[in-house]
Amino acid sequence: KPSFRGSFKYKRCLIPADGFYEWKSQPGTKTKTPYFIHMKDRLPFAFASLWDEWQSPDGSSIRSCTIITTEANELMAGIHNRMPVILNQQDYAAWLDTAPQTPENLLPLIKPFPADKMSAYPVSTMVNNPANNRAELVVPVEK
Predict the structure, then answer these.
(1) Most buried of 30, 83, 85, 128, CB within 10 angstroms?
(2) Which stretches of the chain score pLDDT less than 50?
(3) Is the dihedral angle over the CA atoms 67, 68, 71, 75 positive or is it negative?
(4) What does residue 27 show for φ and ψ, rounded to 5 degrees?
(5) Considering the entire predicted model, what is its pTM?
(6) From the CB of residue 115, how many other CB atoms can be counted at a distance below 10 Å?
């Protein structure tokens, strides 16, 4: 999108994580089941992200960031039609290079992460409330 063009060229960052949530729609209902997605080896990983800084109407400086998404891999396709871009560790330096980059240099990094390195399982609907922040949020539940 044009609004991200400058950040894509100059302001790239990584957001570290050990997992993320996505919600799977249940056909014929309004119900969505939350899933916890992580690496099979349970090691941390990083999302390809962009940052920016802008002035709010009151004149204060606001820093913001966004996680880039791409089409779903085979694992994610059963849950959602898109997924965050997860970078391979060997691509971190290229993504974080402070030199201005062209789309031709970076677009090859924006691809679905290999599904065979990932795992997913349903978790409690407690994740639907941001006030909940406890270990039980990543405990598997029966479908």
Answers:
(1) 83
(2) none
(3) negative
(4) -50, 135
(5) 0.89
(6) 16
